[in-house]
Amino acid sequence: MENVVVLIVGAGPSGLSIAACLSQLSIPYVKLERESCSASLSRNRAYDRLKLDLAKEFCELPHMSYPVDAPTYIPKALFVKYLDDYVERFNICPKYHTSVESSTYDNDKKCWSIVAKDMAKCTTIKFTAKFLVVASGENSAENIPTIPGLESFSGEIIHSSSYKSGKSYFGKNVLVVGSGNSGMEIAYDLATHGANTSIIIRSQIHVMTKELIRLGMTLAHRLPLNLVDNILVMAANFIFGDLSRHGITRPKMGPMALKSKTGRSAVIDVGTVGLIKKGKIEVQGCTNKIFGNIVEFKCGKKISFDMIVFETGYKSTTNIWLKNGESMLNDNGLPIKEYQNHWKGENGLYCAGLARRGFAGIAADAKNTANDIKSMIGSMSS
């Protein structure tokens, strides 16, 4: 049995931020990570051409900026290096290959009892902790939706987390399911490598340029969101024109307001819209069923595909191991409370990076959590 003050689950950007903030306040902690490295999603499950969607000033973790000569939009390799430098600066030493099996609150002892598995040694480790921080993220498990006949598909099926490059798909018929930033960029990558690419766009989306989003985030500090949104939508309409005839429609709520209220981000165009307009990427509607290599869409159209890429997000696995977390997380493992009050539960339970507010949200969660733990420790000793 190992007794710790704070136990952090997860070594992604959220978990690293928590560790750094606790270190700044000289609060001891132990960090558990089931993968073999920190930030495994960015390091191992991101496609090659990935760049951060937002300008670097909006993508910093607490207490450490990017190098002054870093490009405005950080590529994957540089972001991973930034995280490695962050780990080194704050002397963060996660226990890797350690998976949390269960975590329950002991009302008698007033602490959390955590059972973990050392996956390398196949041994069980037990901890008690005054404070427990869930920083395992929303992206714990790949989410592939149920489509009638999917099991009969004779081609290749992958989740976007396994996609690296379109180099090997020249001349192949590929369907991308999902129109978030990753889906749109994967479709672009496939098309530019010569794949016959289709993409399913089911939801209304705002399409912006990275410069517009940077402008919007800057203006949002000085102007009302509805005014900022009006500026962004007018500019986007001028740049892209009417996209509805190409199967892309905008939500009624503006992009900044939508992000603030729901966590849904605008799609930052990397050239996908231009290829859609040229017919090099076809926009499809919802699927109806699949038989063999044929995908039938709701409109009745039937197309043969060699591969399907699912850019359909992830789901949290927190509720599998976290018991007594009902004060903080819902059945989907996401915060119950509204943003800005979501990060704290009862009995010393906290979460970070679950509010879909990007790096700014991660930084705020980490600082709030560390400061609150510091205050709680102070009240215990007084």
UniProtKB/TrEMBL annotation:
Please name the InterPro entries in this protein's record. Answer: Auxin_biosynth/cation_transpt (IPR050982), FAD/NAD-bd_sf (IPR036188), Flavin_mOase (IPR000960)
Q: Which UniProt keywords apply?
A: Oxidoreductase
Q: What class of enzyme is it?
A: oxidoreductase
Q: Tell me the GO molecular function terms.
A: flavin adenine dinucleotide binding; indole-3-pyruvate monooxygenase activity; monooxygenase activity; NADP binding
- Superkingdom is Eukaryota
Per the record, what are the reactions this protein catalyses? Answer: indole-3-pyruvate + NADPH + O2 + H(+) = (indol-3-yl)acetate + CO2 + NADP(+) + H2O
Q: What is its EC number?
A: 1.14.13.168
As for family, the record states: Belongs to the FMO family.
Identification of the protein by name: indole-3-pyruvate monooxygenase
Species this protein is from:
Hordeum vulgare subsp. vulgare (Domesticated barley)
What phylogenetic lineage does the species belong to? Eukaryota, Viridiplantae, Streptophyta, Embryophyta, Tracheophyta
Gene, per the UniProt record: LOC123413407
